[in-house]
Amino acid sequence: QVQLVESGGGLVQAGGSLRLSCAVSGSIFSAMDWYRQAPGKQRELVAAITSGGSTNYADSVKGRFTISRDNAKNTVYLQMNSLKPEDTGVYYCHAQRILSYWGKGTLVTVSS
Questions:
Q1: What is the pLDDT of residues 14-29, one digit of tens each?
Q2: What is the Cα–Cα distance from 108 to 16, expressed in whole angstroms?
Q3: What is the C-alpha to C-alpha distance for residues 70 and 53, in angstroms, rounded to an integer?
Q4: CB contact set of 95 (below 8 Å; sequence gap of 6+)
Q5: Could you tell me the pLDDT band of residue 57, with boundaries at 50, 70 and 90?
Q6: Bridge partner list, 109
Q7: DSSP structural state of residue 30
Q8: Cα 19 to the chain's mean position, in Å?
Q9: How is 64-108 classified by DSSP, letter by letter?
C-alpha cells in the first residue's frame, strides 16, 4: 500500500523559513511533486523533482524554495525560505505511476 506522509508545516512570520518532508512508503517513484492549495483557490504545482535530481519550480517560488530528495530514505523535502503571506496554504506531496497518489497535506500559515 502506497503512503505519502507530509510533515513540517506550521505558523511562521513573513520572511521566515520552513522545511517540509514527505515520507514515501510502499513504492519508489521516479518523479515527485509538491503542490499547494490556498483558501478558495485551486491546487497548484509548486515544485517537482526527478529521480536524477532535475527540478522545476513555479515562477512564484523560484529562488525561494528548493525541492530535494533522499532516495535512500525515500523522502522528498521542500525548503521554503523568505516566506510570504501568499505562500499560505495546505501543501501536498504527490507522485504518479498510472495512479495518482497524494498525501493528506500539511498546513503552512505565513503571517504578515
A1: 999 999 999 999 988 8
A2: 12
A3: 10
A4: 2, 4, 24, 27, 29, 31, 32, 33, 101
A5: very high
A6: 11
A7: S
A8: 9
A9: TEEEEEETTTTEEEEEE-S--GGG-EEEEEEEEESEEEE---EEE
